[in-house]
Specification:
Layout lengths: L3 E2 L5 H6 L8 E4 L4 E5 L4 E6 L5 E5 L3 H11 L6 H8 L3 H9 L10 H10 L5 H15 L1 E2 L5 E2 L3 H5 L3 H9 L3 H11 L13 H8 L7 H10 L11 H11 L7 H12 L3 H17 L1
Antiparallel strand pairs: 1-5, 2-3, 3-4, 4-5, 6-7
Helix pairs in contact: 4-14, 5-9, 5-11, 6-8, 8-9, 10-11, 12-14
The chain binds a DNA duplex (13 and 12 nucleotides) through helix 5, helix 6, helix 8, helix 11 and helix 12.
DNA sequence: ACCCAGGCGGGCG
DNA sequence: CGCCCGCATGGG
């Protein structure tokens, strides 16, 4: 069995950092094993001791390797990305702390659902909500895991049935997004379009504002110009770069572009995860 | 008990 | 445009 060679990939940080939370991987890190349902089948990744080789176990190994490579952006030139975003001491330590954390590239619909559910919410609860959606309405695989329900399935549900999953006021957004994405809007046709087009199209969905659209553009479409600013990123930027003084989102957006350039979406993930863990751990 | 969470739409000036 | 408000729910 020949493994896949990987560089600068830390699955633990990548999988734990909530991007997006529709992507669930069971992480047995002491044994360097990760398993997840890639939408088609169950995949098991087994890392070598030095973390540079991965055995990919799956029924259809060819499909699994291709999906693994796409989702974890294995062809990204990490040394170059790091060198371009490593412009200051905070980013330097964030990269050191979470070295090998990758952005992931995920299904646009799942990413949309996840980040609509994320608003005014916290990671633990989002994770729980998504699992509940999968458990109740997802398509079950032979291996026992479930995939996230497609827009047509969710569109068949009543708002009350969605609320019963625990999502509260977000139910009307989810319902509306499902209606739109099973009808007039084709999320998949947006692939290959530019960042501005992707974002403005996404914002036509009721319940998708600027921040959520940026998350979807980044983690569902791979648009690295997207720099989503949530409460954690905002606080961290203000504390680290502006002496704790409150700044407007628009100002911070401009700052990010100037500070971290074309790979600022990558920078954002390190700011988010490092910033949150500075407070929480 | 109280506060907050990967924000949003709506209403107001 | 900018600003402010309410919002369902559960974990710390």
């Amino acid at each position: 069995m020949n493994g896949v060679k990987v560089e600068n990939l830390n699955l633990k940080h990548t999988v734990e950092s909530g991007q997006p939370l529709t992507f669930h991987a069971d992480c047995d890190w002491p044994n360097r094993r990760v398993s997840y349902n890639n939408g088609v089948q169950l995949v098991t990744l087994a890392f070598s001791a030095n973390g540079k080789k991965v055995q990919v176990g799956a029924r259809d190994q060819k499909q699994a390797i291709a999906e693994f490579s796409t989702r974890f952006r294995l062809t990204d030139d990490m040394p170059r990305i790091y060198s371009e975003i490593n412009t200051d001491p905070f980013m330097d330590s964030a990269i050191a702390n979470y070295n090998g954390m990758r952005l992931t590239l995920n299904d646009p619909w799942e990413t949309t659902m996840c980040f609509i559910l994320s608003q005014y919410n916290n990671l633990k609860r989002i994770r729980k909500l998504v699992l509940e959606m999968k458990r109740r309405y997802g398509k079950r695989s032979p291996d026992g895991s479930s995939t996230f329900p497609m827009p047509e399935r969710i569109n068949d549900l009543s708002e009350q049935e969605l609320r019963d999953c625990g999502m509260g006021f977000r139910a009307k957004y989810i319902k509306s997004a499902a209606e739109m994405c099973s009808g007039s809007m084709d999320l998949y046709s947006l692939r290959g379009r530019g960042y501005d087009t992707v974002k403005s199209n996404l914002m036509e969905i009721y319940g998708v504002g600027s921040k959520v659209a940026d998350c979807i553009a980044l983690m569902g479409y791979g648009k690295m110009e997207a720099f989503p600013i949530d409460v954690w990123v905002k606080r961290t930027l203000e504390n680290v770069y502006f002496k704790g003084k409150e700044k407007k989102i628009s100002m911070l957006t401009d700052f990010a572009e100037e500070q971290w350039g074309r790979y600022r979406g990558y920078a954002q993930q390190y700011i988010f995860w490092n910033g949150m863990n500075m407070v929480k751990k």
